[in-house]
Amino acid sequence: MDPYLPPNSTGFFSIIFGLGFFAKIIVLILVVFSIISWAIIIKKFFVFKRVKKNNDFLYRFFKDRKSVAEFVGIADQYPNSHLAKLVFAGIEEWRRIIKDNQTNKQVPAPEQADSLIKLLPNINETLERTTSREIDWLEQNLGFLATTGSVAPFLGLLGTVWGILSAFLSVRHIPVVTLQVIAPGISDALVTTVVGLLVAIPAVVAYNYYIGKVKNFANEMDRWSLEITGDFRKTALGPESKN
Hints:
The protein is an all-alpha fold. Helices cover about 80% and strands about 0% of the residues.
């Protein structure tokens, strides 16, 4: 049997425990990164799943609405849905606009309608702020996945370089150095690179996947915002706008 490959040293965990102090610190840091990354990945999976389910369910009713006000009763049952939050934000701003215009009761109806339409950009801004807040919420902690994907391979490489350097320094006084002498040290040093890649790959894949989902949600909210603003425009113009 090869003395450099004893049976109890070929297992992955046996190799980990056989690493030097510095390499063990690197592996420990990578393990912490991995645990946090997987916690974020699992949490975001359920969060995004719930958000999509609520949005899809509500939109089935929203697309058949006759007005935004008609939809409020259903939206109240799903207050955490993006669509519901947009509707509530739009209605709140609309009520504020109506309240401000009630001071001009002597103004003819056509001019009141023009005044309301001119204030529709206020609703757009409110909906944009709501969308921005929701996107920020969806993106929470995703930055850690990006950091893990960027840093983990370099941490692994650092451990490998350190291990290789240590392997060569340990044999610098030996007159004749063979591959059999330095191979165990080099192979052990490469373990940190493997661990770094195992930590980084899932984080990068998950980050790209979730960023894509966030962009989809953002596009949906932008589309819904246009529809909501269109409903308020029809309300401002009055019944004749529906003909």
